[in-house]
Design brief:
CATH architecture of the largest domain: 3-Layer(aba) Sandwich
Largest sheet: 7 strands, mixed
Structural class: alpha+beta
CATH superfamily of the largest domain: P-loop containing nucleotide triphosphate hydrolases
CATH class of the largest domain: Alpha Beta
Mean pLDDT: 91
Radius of gyration: 32 Å
Distance between the termini: 68 Å
Strand content: 25-35%
Shape: elongated
CATH topology of the largest domain: Rossmann fold
Number of domains: 5
Helix content: 25-40%
Number of strands: 34
Low-confidence stretches: none
Length: 683
């Protein structure tokens, strides 16, 4: 059986890493499972993961089950670290998605499911923690069916509830597996009290499987039954084409074998998945190739970068083309650099296992590539191709980072760029206007970890504060003014005189300047000096000292002195004329407005709409997507600084959004008055 990459994803707290440990035990990779609580798992090994007892970075392991090689990616569930999960899904051939058997809808589930739907990803759904008191398989299945809106087809049923959960019923073989002795499951008859329900669910399984395959549907309509082999074949086709999702059960060690069997029989291997995507006309944007495109030579995509304390930078790569052998010289199409790869490795958690080659579909590690980054394509120089880059979500929360020590700005910049090598969902830049070092991320926890890492790994103590909002100033009406600079101190003086007309031009960021001088009132060689003076004056408006935008300026008259005039004098005169004219042009403050696309469950629509109004925002439109609503809104940046935190609190963690700059807008008078007063008071 061919190699396959399986991403293991779930909402926070579903027991994903515990399942991964159990898989490694059952496949013989480790002798006993580690503990998330004790920080001893193979896949959660970073210091921040051990401290917080949750997955933050995608962990990778490999094993063989049913003679099938599997690369398993244990991806984070929290939206704070969703970039890791997006990268894992991109290179997966199939996904095992977990959710707790306890009632309740989790926000991460909606977001993760949408990622899978967008990529038509073959998947299994595993309902976990069936040994908990509140766990109810049938109720949870119905709840998930309404939430996810896709045919969920159970192939397992639980035996017992809560503390009495002891095994699973296999609906394909119609037999029960008793896990009373956890590591020695016993195959037997279905308990009599569960047989009627099992027959009912078996009928549902057969019906849903037949509907996913025309050939099987014809037989089902004639006989109302399918053989075990036909069921398996129909399930494989349905999963591959995303027409159905098999549902399994797990709790600690119970049900692990069934999940491993389903992973290696129902989820496609790399070549099957690639062939299906190619046949279904998987396209890529102009200039790129689809992951499904078959190649005669090697090509692969770097989906994650990691900096190891001892091994240096590691590039994690999925082979989409032909085999990659150690020692091959590779070409990075994305950066136009040649990379030499003397060694190849497979990962087993933090341990690196050297290999001689990576087969098509395998995930491996290339060490110390100096000019290769996450999302880059590596290939042979003789056949240059480039895969579509990974679309990582953009930051939704930005803070200003203030350093405790002086003169450490260069060190901070170096440290943050190294961290960003591993995490493409982070952003960092220095705003020269406000002086802020702005760090953007996916949420409060995400940014807190960046701050902690700066202290731990780079000895940089810092704190986050709200960033300064980049307000602007402009004018409402046209105005004219004279700028006359005259200075006489003995000997040659300074003389410059110009008349300037300014007018609003629709918020263009750049100055629109023209000269209407006739008759030589100002010599031609001094006009650029007037323009420079006006341009310099734009850096500080007359209301509160914010930069000025949306201005057209025209110099139309003036005078000069044969001896005393100079470029400097006319530059000062131009600046003076602009400031006087702006005071007469009914100046106003402008604030940046963000465009938000907010995805929420319908139940929270009223709360979110009211909150947008309270932030001086406007709802621009709405769309329905199943049980979710997509709200398009415009909100002033000053009112949305903490929106990522507030939205998650408002929607019990089920809302998420994307944002981008939209435009500048006039600040309401009552808000403007406070801003001007505070700014001029030096606050």
């Amino acid at each position: 059986m061919g190699a396959r990459t399986i991403a293991l994803i779930a909402h926070t707290g579903a027991g994903k890493t515990t399942l991964a440990e159990a898989m490694l035990v059952r496949s013989g990779v480790i002798k006993k499972p580690g503990s998330v609580e004790n920080g001893t798992t193979v896949l959660d090994y970073e210091p921040d993961e051990k401290e917080r007892k949750t997955t933050i970075h995608s962990g990778i392991a490999h094993f063989t089950w049913n003679n099938c090689p599997v690369d398993l990616i244990d991806a984070p569930g929290s939206l704070n670290f969703i970039g890791e999960t997006v990268g894992a899904i991109r290179v997966a051939d199939g996904v095992v998605m977990m959710t707790s058997g306890e009632p309740g809808v989790h926000g991460e589930t909606d977001f993760l499911w949408e990622q899978l739907e967008n990529q038509h990803m073959p998947r299994l759904l595993v309902i976990s923690q069936m040994d908990r008191d509140q766990a109810d398989f049938d109720a949870r299945l119905e709840e998930l069916g309404q939430q996810l809106e896709v045919p969920l087809v159970p192939i397992h049923l639980p035996v017992g509830k809560g503390g009495g959960f002891t095994g699973v019923i296999d609906l394909i073989r119609m037999q029960a597996l008793d896990y009373t002795i956890a590591d020695k499951p016993k195959l037997g008859e279905i308990p009599q009290e569960l047989r009627a329900h099992a027959l009912e669910m078996r009928h549902r399984l057969v019906e849903n499987t037949a509907e996913a395959d025309d050939t099987l549907l014809e037989k089902y309509l004639e006989t109302e039954e399918l053989t075990e082999d036909e069921l398996l074949q129909g399930l494989k086709e349905g999963v591959l084409k995303s027409k159905l999702v098999p549902v399994l059960i797990v709790s600690r060690g119970v049900g692990v074998d069934g999940i491993l069997n389903a992973m290696t029989t129902l989820l496609p291997d790399f070549l099957t998945r690639r062939a299906h995507r190619q046949a279904s006309n998987g396209k890529a944007p102009p200039g790129f190739i689809s992951d499904a495109h078959p190649l005669k030579g090697f090509a692969g995509l770097v989906f994650k970068s990691r900096v190891d304390q001892y091994a240096g930078k590691l590039s994690l790569l999925k082979v989409f083309g032909e085999e990659l052998k150690a020692g091959t010289e590779l070409y990075n199409v994305s950066t136009d650099h040649v990379e030499r790869v003397p060694h190849l490795f497979k990962l087993q958690g933090k341990e690196q296992v050297e290999v001689k080659s990576l087969a098509p579909g395998e995930v491996g590690v290339l060490p110390k590539l100096g000019n290769t980054h996450t999302g880059n394509t590596l290939c042979l120089a003789s056949e240059k191709v480039e895969y579509t880059p990974i679309e990582f979500p953009k930051p939704v929360l930005t803070y200003a980072l203030h350093l405790a020590g002086k003169g450490e700005e260069d060190k901070l910049s170096t440290a943050l760029h190294r961290i960003m090598e591993e995490d493409p969902t982070l952003s960092f830049h220095h705003n020269s206007e406000t002086g802020d070092f702005l760090v953007g991320g996916m949420g409060q926890i995400h940014l807190d970890l960046v701050r902690d890492r700066l202290a731990r790994d780079y000895n940089l103590k810092s704190e986050f504060q709200p960033p300064h909002v980049p307000y602007r100033e402009t004018i409402r009406t046209s105005a004219k003014a004279q700028g006359k600079y005259k200075k006489q101190t003995g000997g040659r003086g300074q003389y410059g005189d110009c008349w300037l007309e300014i007018s609003p031009n629709g918020q263009k960021s750049e100055l629109v300047f023209e000269s209407a001088i006739v008759g030589g009132a100002i010599p031609r060689n001094y006009i650029p000096a007037v323009e420079k003076g006006v341009h310099d004056a734009l850096s500080k408006g007359v209301l509160a000292g914010f930069p000025v935008i949306g201005i057209s300026a025209k110099v139309y008259d003036g005078s000069y002195h044969e001896v005393d005039s100079s470029e400097m004098a006319f530059k000062i005169a131009g600046s003076m004329a602009f400031k006087k004219a702006m005071e007469e042009g009914r100046p106003v403050l402008l604030e940046p407005v963000l465009k938000l696309n907010i995805v929420i469950p319908s139940d929270y629509m009223g709360d979110v709409m009211g909150d947008i109004n309270s932030r001086r925002g406007r709802v621009m439109g709405m769309d329905s997507k199943g049980r979710r609503q997509i709200v398009r809104a415009e909100v002033p940046q000053s009112e949305a600084l903490h929106y990522a935190i507030d939205l998650r609190a408002m929607t019990s963690g089920m809302g998420y959004f994307a944002q981008e700059f939209s435009h500048y807008e006039e600040v309401p008078p009552h808000v403007s008055e406070k801003l001007i007063k505070a700014r001029n008071a030096g606050e």
